[in-house]
Amino acid sequence: MSPKIRPRIVSVLAVVAITSAAVAQSGVSAATAPFAPFEQWKSAILAGDAAALRSLYSTDPPAQVSIKGANYNADADVNFWIALKPRSMKVEVVRNEVRHGHISYIFRAQVQPFSGPEINITDDQAWQQQGDRWLLIGVERTDAPRLKQPANMKKDIYPANVDAHGEIREAEERAAAGHKRLLLVFGANWCFDCHVLDLAFQRPDLAPILAENYEVVHVDIGPDGKKNADLVSQFEIPLDRGVPALAVAESDGRLVVSQKNGEFEDARGLTPEVLRQFLEKWKPVTQSSHS
User: Fold this and answer.
1) 206-226, pLDDT tens digit by residue?
2) Domains in the chain, please, with CATH?
3) Close Cβ partners of 57 (under 8 Å, ≥ 6 residues apart)
4) pTM, to two decimals
């Protein structure tokens, strides 16, 4: 999950209060409560109304749009959706909650254009209240993702009560006995891309490589990115590049490699081949490798 979108935001308390009131009135949980601004956004797309759609993107601050790691303005997102000319859009909401003072709305969409094949899209939207309106301040869109996208983010990949230091020590012992390396996955449960990566590591083409060569340890950075700061420093993880971030270490804890450029922070846009190449490249060096 990238830290690139750092918009100017309204008061966290104000957003929480507004969101809580809306949920209370609806009588449903925040995860399932309909979010009216998103429904307006979706309706504008289905109606092909570019002006109405554009009006839902913030101009102050300007909405930031990220597509495959590249940054664009709101017009790029508007033009993309209008050009699809969708006949229908089936939406599955992954997250609808307050994050860092704005509404984080992540959804998976199956879009059926009037002509052409169905398109699968994952969209990560950040909505902010400005005056009496909710506007999009950030979008991270992935078109036709190659990796499986989670239907929800309920899995507790990073349990809050786990001692990462103890887990690493235990993993080192297992790695030494099994002639493996450690694969440290820094992230947090709030990170959508961490859930994507977790699913990817369960693929039948990747899971055997992990099982044979690595002891995997998930290192929680917490809700504010400050948890396990000593491990972040020890394994040279640049959190400003986003999570998930990976490090490979020998069974004695010596660092082999750590990602420096946020290579996996946009896991939702990666291919299985990229993950396989990483795991194959950094698996333990065997005697046969030298012969």
Assistant:
1) 999 999 999 999 999 999 999
2) 12-143 (3.10.450.50), 164-283 (3.40.30.10)
3) 63, 74, 77, 78, 135, 136
4) 0.79
